[in-house]
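Please complete every field before forwarding. Incomplete forms are returned to the sender.

SECTION A: IDENTIFIERS
Entry label: holo-356
Bound molecule: NAP
Molecule representation: SMILES string

SECTION B: INPUTS
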Amino acid sequence: MRVTPIAVIGKGNVGRAFLRQIAATRAAFLERGLDLRVVAVAGRQAGLYAKDGIDETRLRDLAEGRAKLDAAGTPTGWDEITAHVAGLGLPGQIVVDLTAEDAAAHDEWLRRGWHVVTANKKPLTGPLPRYDAIMGHRDAEAPAYRYEATVGAGLPVIASLRDMLLTGDEVIEVRATVSGTLGFLCSACEEGTPFAAAVAEAKKRGYTEPDPRDDLSGEDVRRKALILARLIGHRKELGDIAAEGLVPEGLASCTVDEFMDRLAGATGAIDDRFRAVARRGRTLRYMLTITKDDVRVGMEEVPLGDGFGGLKGPENLFVIRTARYDANPLMIRGPGAGPDVTAAAVFSDLLRIIAH
Ligand SMILES: NC(=O)c1ccc[n+]([C@@H]2O[C@H](COP(=O)([O-])OP(=O)(O)OC[C@H]3O[C@@H](n4cnc5c(N)ncnc54)[C@H](OP(=O)(O)O)[C@@H]3O)[C@@H](O)[C@H]2O)c1
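SECTION C: PREDICTED COMPLEX
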């Protein structure tokens, strides 16, 4: 029996979906000689650590949100989490980061020889020296680092690009819509919904962050653009990528409730923009474009009903042109968010590390 110890940091939407998927498939993997053993689950307030694996019932309860860590847990912080995982003393363990925290200690974990799988973009989009500490000097002996879920959720974007590069292809251009929230807003506005009403609807459906300005600022798209740009060789910092923000002037620092109340009176210009492009048979999408020389993020006019202009709701589309896929670019299209598809990408990354 091959035992793979797994430490899961973050037990929110994606964390719970990941634990559910592990619990649901554990027996089948055991039959095939693989013990996917969850040895740690940690959140902000508490963590549960068990060298021989967390009891199956407790794991299912955590996955379903029926149990909280706090009752039996250990106080946490990043140093404590690292110390507790180290204290388990398990070789070959995989640490899975399902938080959205900048301070997540990926470089430290790799230095300790632990494999890392992440859905968290922030450590990867920090300053270049930190990025290099995470990505640098990878050889066959180095612990693995995988981050498929950081861009396009479950869509195989990073693996595809990486395989193309590894086999000597040359990326000419990546164009993509990578924000489910902004995709939803653009397709609602194109159908005539005022921008403010579309934001309210997206918030009601749980598509936006608790503060919708976190989506409207373009920050999330910039981070995804930076991850892809660095993957294909750009040496850029987050600050080098300008993003067109959709937060109206004067509404950047009020409370969320005030923001929602005042939005309708401040977004006439965006509604006008959608009406103007519609008269030309076109529409707007919030795009990222990466070429060898440039990284751009912002609203772009595209033909209605075709390719990007044909996307509905929170769908993502990636169009990747390379030396080999030039006349007919590779297209990857599908849901760009959702706990289940994101957790499945994390799970697949983990299985690839084991199979290596
Ligand atoms: N949801 C999606 O569709 C999606 C898609 C692609 C990528 N992602 C990425 O996946 C990650 C998780 O997303 P989510 O939707 O699951 O978020 P979430 O529901 O907000 O969960 C975040 C989790 O991180 C934990 N956490 C925060 N700070 C921590 C700390 N210092 N130490 C330990 N745990 C900490 C929180 O712990 P507590 O429970 O104790 O508060 C919470 O359980 C994010 O980076 C997100 O960008 C999400």
